[in-house]
Amino acid sequence: MTSIGILGAGRVGTNLARKLSAAGHHVTVGGRGPEGTTAHTTAHNTAHPAGPAPRIAFADQRTTALTSDIVINATPGDSSLDRLADLRTELVGKILIDVSNATRNDGDGLPGDLCYPGSSLAERLQAALPDTRVVKTLNTMLFMVMTAPEILATPPTAYLSGNDQHAKATVTGLLADLGWQPERIEDLGGITTARATEAMILVVPHILRRHGFKPFAVSLAR
C-alpha cells in the first residue's frame, strides 16, 4: 500500500482519490480552504459496493504533501507553480505526478492559450522543485477517463514525461491501478516532452464546443 497525497479537491482530485483508495492505497486529499485544516476521513466504495468501504483522509495541502510518499498535483494549472513551489521542503524526495494543464481561459471559460508557451507547467515545476521527481501524465483527457479508460470505444493513450526512470516506473504501476493497460501507456522521454502533451489541451475547447462535455482523450492511433 502506498501513501498518496492529492493536492486539489475538485472533480479531478476526488475522482482520482476514489479509484486509488479502492485499489488499496492510503489516500489523503489536500484542500486549501478552512475545511481542509482539520483532518477527517470519509468512506467511498464505488468499486465494491458489498465490501468494506475504502477510507480517504482530508487535510491541508502542506500536511498532505509532507505525509505522503507520492503527491499528485490536481490544482488549477495556472496557479500550480506558485502553490507547489511554496511546498518545496515538504516535497523533497517525493514523486510528484502532475496531471494539470496551465492555461488562460477564453471568455466562455474554456482554455484559450498556454501559460508557458515554449515550455510547460511540468518543466517549471521540476525547475522549482529540484529535489522532487516530477512525472507528467493523464493531462490529455477529460477527468472521468483518467480512472476509467475502458469507457471509450477507442482505447486511449496515457503519456508519460519525466527525467527519472524509477519514478516513471512507479507511476506506471499506479496507472495500472487506475485501469490502464501497459500497451496504452506511452513514455515520451524527459520532462521537456511535457510541452507536447500540454499543448494538446488547445484542441479540447473546440471539441467541447462542438460535442459537449462527453468523455474523450487525445490519443495515439497505431
SSE layout:
Layout: E1 3-7, H1 11-22, E2 26-31, E3 40-43, E4 55-60, H2 61-67, E5 70-73, H3 77-85, E6 95-98, E7 103-105, E8 111-114, H4 121-128, E9 133-136, H5 143-146, E10 158-162, H6 165-177, E11 185-189, H7 194-199, H8 204-211
Parallel strand pairs: 1-2, 1-5, 2-4, 5-6, 6-9, 10-11
Antiparallel strand pairs: 3-4, 7-8, 9-10
In order across it, which strands form the biggest sheet?
3-4-2-1-5-6-9-10-11
CATH superfamily: NAD(P)-binding Rossmann-like Domain
Helix content: 25-40%
Number of helical elements = 8
Tell me the series of helices and strands, N- to C-terminal.
EHEEEHEHEEEHEHEHEHH
What is the CA–CA distance across the termini?
34 Å
What's the shape? globular
Averaged pLDDT: 91
Mind telling me the C-alpha Rg?
16 Å
- Secondary structure category: alpha/beta
Task: Based on the coordinates given, report the CATH architecture.
Answer: 3-Layer(aba) Sandwich
Major sheet summary line:
9 strands, mixed
Beta-strand level of the residues, as a percent range? 15-25%
Low-confidence segments, given as residue ranges, are: 34-53
How many strand elements?
11
Q: What is the total number of structural domains?
A: 1
